[in-house]
Amino acid sequence: TGELPEYLGNMSLTTLDLSFNKLRGGIPDSFNSRMRNVFLTGNLLNGTVPDWIPEIEGPLRKFDLSYNNFTYGNSLGLNCKNQRVNLFRSFSESNKGIDPCLIIPQCSQYNNSFYINCGGDRFVDKSTGTAYDADNRDDIMFYKGGTNWAVSSTGGFFENETDPVTRSYISKNTSTLPINKPELYMNARLSPLTLTYNGFCLLDGSYTVNFQFAEIIFTHDQTYKSYGRRIFDVYIQGKLVQKDFKIEAGNEIELNFPAVMVTNKTLEIRFHWAGKGTTGIPDTGKGVYGPLISAISVTSDSEPPSEKGNSTSAGNSISAGTIVGVVVAVVFVFFLVLAVLWWKGCLQR
């Protein structure tokens, strides 16, 4: 608890991790000196973010301020474009409304689905024609992908920060996978701590969320690597839907969650490692024991809108019931006018 002391930035620290400590106040300017990696996610830091943070550069320079209470200012217009800085969910509810990193000037269309090949290239399922967006940008803490989704990762890999394998946010499988649709499982996105996917520009309504997992770091054999266990929690729309979920090595696992409500055009999916499972198998995963996901699919539980209706805002679409009602009313008025005219003609006779 308390505030960040100024003297921390004057020490010979290269990496500082004070995540989840209920820290308050701002960030001292002394932090813009020797430190190469700073992780302050999950605190109560407030005020404005110093102007120098969105401008940091360098292959080993990372600044994670996600999940805090900062005030959004005009000086941070480019904050989400610097992929060395993570400001996802870092602004207080009263100031952000919708997270500034996810603000879209105007949705060109509202969608009723999205599909992601997490950690991999674009993939088309030939049996269904479903196209999975690529999600293959590595060593990135936040970016928008596809047409209507974004991904954020918190935490850092500390074993050997000069080793590019250690710093990778994507795991690549090198063995044969005797499973259905192996293309979706050859790569996976992983995170040291928390991995969040946000869908936006979605039609409001009920959705089914499907996750596909396969453990491709720990093995399913007779070596010591087979003793690894990956355990994490799964949240959808802020609600815990799967606690202490464990991926089995050598096999794919699917989780299916129907009737997920979208009420503000956005959907949040979060995988969080709470420190459970394996944390100390040498040379296996190099400290990467956090959440891992192979593919995500989100589909509406309702009938898909027409092509014309799907390309316009939901507020401008007209339902079939409304059209039928208008037609019936017009026909009724037409025959009523004819009846009145006929009645008047009879009176004149």
UniProtKB/TrEMBL annotation:
Keywords: Kinase, Membrane, Transferase, Transmembrane, Transmembrane helix. It holds the Pfam family LRR_1. Residues 114-296 form the Malectin domain. GO terms for molecular function: protein serine/threonine kinase activity. The keyword Transferase applies. The chain crosses the membrane at residues 318-343. Signal peptide: none annotated. Its EC number is 2.7.11.1. PANTHER family: MALECTIN DOMAIN-CONTAINING PROTEIN (PTHR34081), MALECTIN, LEUCINE-RICH REPEAT DOMAIN, L DOMAIN-LIKE PROTEIN-RELATED (PTHR34081:SF1). This is Putative Leucine-rich repeat transmembrane protein kinase. The lineage of its organism: Eukaryota, Viridiplantae, Streptophyta, Embryophyta, Tracheophyta.
